[in-house]
Amino acid sequence: MLKPKAIWLLVLVFTLTGFMLAAGCGNGPDVEGPPEEAPVENGDEAEYKNAAPDCWNYQPTGMKPNPGWDTVDLEGLTREELVEVLGCPPHVIRMTSVVSAAHNRELWVYHPYDEDPTGLFVWLKGNVFHDSMLDEFNGFWCYEMSDLDFWE
């Protein structure tokens, strides 16, 4: 049996949580998506061209990589180039270093096929493509860290 103090504490916690959710505190930042156009200075005129998406400030709407992903050689591409080729990753595990970008490690996962649990896994080491593979993906809780040396 719960003591009266514990009951009041639970009521308080649930009430505060409800207020926070109603105020939008649990929904994350209100970011619409990537900028559609960004100004580019060209002499006296400002031209507008499509800006590269900022994947890290919003959740991508699609789970698939960009069309043509399966025909591109990813070897040697940087993080920014991979975003241009593949699009924003819907799932990311990231380990960053404050010492040096060479120590950064990331795993991106896309869902290239409809109605299929296949995932396109893309590993980045030092902000550069390291490896990729197609394999079943049902969430990170099912993912086995088979290459522990990669994360060191």
In short:
The chain has about 150 residues and is of the alpha+beta class.
Number of distinct beta strands: 6
Mean pLDDT: 74
Helical residues, percent: 10-25%
Query: Per CATH, which architecture?
Result: 2-Layer Sandwich
Q: Work out the oligomeric state of the chains in this entry.
A: single chain
Taking Cα atoms only, what radius of gyration do you get, to the nearest Å? 21 Å
Largest sheet: 4 strands, antiparallel
Alpha-beta classification: alpha+beta
Coarse morphology: globular
Element pattern in H and E: HEEHEEEEH
Report how far apart the termini are. 47 Å
Features:
single chain, about 150 residues, alpha+beta, Beta-lactamase Inhibitory Protein, Chain:B, domain 1, four-stranded antiparallel beta sheet, two-stranded antiparallel sheet, 3 helices, about 20% helix, globular
Could you explain the architecture of this structure?
The chain is built from three helices and six strands. The protein is of the alpha+beta class. It has a single domain, classed as Beta-lactamase Inhibitory Protein, Chain:B, domain 1 (2-Layer Sandwich). The chain has a four-stranded antiparallel β-sheet, with no helix packed on it. The protein has a two-stranded antiparallel sheet with strand order 1-2. The radius of gyration is 21 Å and the shape is globular. The N and C termini lie far apart (47 Å).
How do the strands and helices of this protein lay out in sequence?
Blueprint: H1 4-23, E1 38-42, E2 45-49, H2 79-86, E3 91-95, E4 105-110, E5 118-125, E6 128-136, H3 148-151
Antiparallel strand pairs: 1-2, 3-4, 4-5, 5-6
